[in-house]
Fold this protein.
Amino acid sequence: MRYQGILFDLDGVLCSTDRFHYAAWQQTAREAGAPFDEAVNQRLRGVGRMESLEIILAGSARTFTETEKQRMAEEKNERYRALLRQMTPADMPGGVRRALEQLRAAGLKLAVGSSSKNARFILRQLQAEDCFDAVCDGTQIQNSKPDPEVFLKAAAMLGLPPAACLVVEDAPAGLQAARAGGMDCAFVGSAPRPFPPAYILRDVTELPGAILG
């Protein structure tokens, strides 16, 4: 088998919290007097919270202190977590769960590699913690994607070298992080790709067929 481990991004790959992120960031942008639409939202995909805030604030005519930025980021996260409490196991499609079961049955180790500091909370809401051998999230890293830190740490948690792992991503920053970490990438969805990934998938349900043969 070509790979020994699979490293999954969370949002947009295993589930979708886009609607919650959008609503929470939209309120932040409104308070900052910055424009916010789907084009701006797309630029935030796979990017850490403070980096996302900087992208939004760049559209404002106002300037903000570091203290104000920290407060805004914390308030955004509080709004987002309140919305996340609406999530249930139904927010992870059954086909995705079956794909994870197939991969584990084939002997692959599975990990989540997410820049989100809410990744474990989301997995609990989805009742999906037992689907993975390891979770590396935003609380365990210093650098967000496109830095490869989250994937390198996830691979280390599995006890595997980076080259033995396949990253599953839906964001350009994640694709770049995989390459920087020396890993192949299976890219989910139709977001712009800065370079060709090893695999292009409509969704995770296609992954077992793509790599198990």
Q: What stands out?
A: The chain has a mean pLDDT of 95.
